[in-house]
C-alpha cells in the first residue's frame, strides 16, 4: 500500500480491511488528514486493482519520539474500508516472537529510491534474510542503537536493501507451514542504503501486537 502527500511518500501494509500499519516517522512533518492510501503497482497510473482511500485517523505509538527511531509504528484508520480482491489482500500479523528467526528470508517491498537515486515508478521487492539483534548490535554495525523493538534484515555485505521512500512499507515473511504471509517488520531506518555492515532496520511488529490490537478494537490510541 502506498501513502502519499506532497512532501512525504511512504509505504504501508493493510492489516485489516480498514487499517493500515506504517511507520510513525512518516508523519513527521505532515498534515496527515490530507493523506491518501492506494493499493496499486504503479505510481501515477491507475492500474486495475487500485483502490483509493482517504485517512480517517492516525494512531502514532505513544512512546514514539520524533527524531528518534524507537517505537516507529503507526496505525491508520481509513475513512472507508478496502474491498478485498484477488490482488488486494490483507497481511497477517505475527504469531509469536519466535515465528521467524535469524537467517529466515523475508521480502521487503516499496516504491523507494533505487540505484539511480530516484523513487521507483513501479512497486519493487527484494528478498532479505533476518539478522538477529546480537549481530546487528555489533560495534561495527549499529551498536547500542538497536533496541528490542527493532529487527535488522539484509546482508552484511550490502547491496540488497530498502531505501528512502520505502519507509512504512512491509517486511513480509511467509510461514512455511501455513503459507500465510506475516507483517514481521516495517521499514524504519538505516545508515544510507546498501552499504556493507549497515543493513536496513525494521520495526519488530511482534513487539507491538498488544498495542495494535488495542487500537483496532477500541478505535482509540492505547498506552502500550
Ligand atoms: C529512509 O530514510 C530509509 N537502508 C529507509 C530505509 C533505509 C534507510 C533509510 C534502509 O526512509
From TrEMBL:
CDD domains xref list: Tryp_SPc (cd00190)
Keywords: Disulfide bond, Hydrolase, Protease, Serine protease
GO molecular-function terms, A-Z: serine-type endopeptidase activity; serine-type peptidase activity
Keyword Disulfide bond carried by entry: yes
GO biological process: proteolysis
Any Pfam family the entry gives: Trypsin
Keyword Hydrolase: yes
Entry superkingdom: Eukaryota
Domain Peptidase S1 span(s) in chain numbering: 1-217
Protein name per its UniProtKB record: Peptidase S1 domain-containing protein
Organism: Ciona intestinalis
Amino acid at each position: 500500500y502506498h501513502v502519499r502527500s506532497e512532501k512525504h511518500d511512504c509505504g504501508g501494509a493493510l492489516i485489516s480491511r480498514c487499517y493500515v500499519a506504517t511507520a510513525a516517522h512518516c508523519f513527521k512533518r505532515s498534515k496527515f488528514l490530507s493523506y491518501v492510501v492506494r493499493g496499486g503497482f504503479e505510481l501515477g497510473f491507475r492500474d486495475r486493482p487500485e483502490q483509493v482511500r482517504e485517512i480517517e485517523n492516525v494512531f502514532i505509538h505513544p512512546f514514539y519520539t520524533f527524531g528518534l527511531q524507537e517505537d516507529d509504528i503507526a496505525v491508520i484508520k481509513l475513512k472507508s474500508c478496502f474491498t478485498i480482491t484477488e490482488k488486494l489482500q490483507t497481511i497477517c500479523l505475527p504469531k509469536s516472537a519466535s515465528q521467524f528467526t535469524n537467517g529466515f528470508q523475508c521480502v521487503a517491498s516499496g516504491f523507494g529510491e533505487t540505484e539511480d537515486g530516484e523513487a521507483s515508478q513501479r512497486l519493487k521487492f527484494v528478498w532479505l534474510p533476518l539478522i538477529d539483534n546480537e549481530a546487528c548490535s555489533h560495534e561495527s554495525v549499529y551498536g547500542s542503537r538497536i533496541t528490542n523493538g527493532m529487527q535488522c534484515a539484509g546482508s552484511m555485505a550490502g547491496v540488497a536493501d530498502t531505501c528512502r521512500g520505502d519507509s512504512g512499507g512491509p517486511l513480509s515473511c511467509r510461514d512455511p507451514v501455513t503459507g500465510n504471509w506475516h507483517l514481521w517488520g516495517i521499514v524504519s531506518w538505516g545508515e544510507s542504503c546498501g552499504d556493507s555492515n549497515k543493513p536496513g532496520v525494521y520495526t519488530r511488529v511482534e513487539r507491538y501486537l498488544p498495542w495494535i490490537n488495542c487500537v483496532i478494537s477500541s478505535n482509540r490510541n492505547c498506552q502500550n
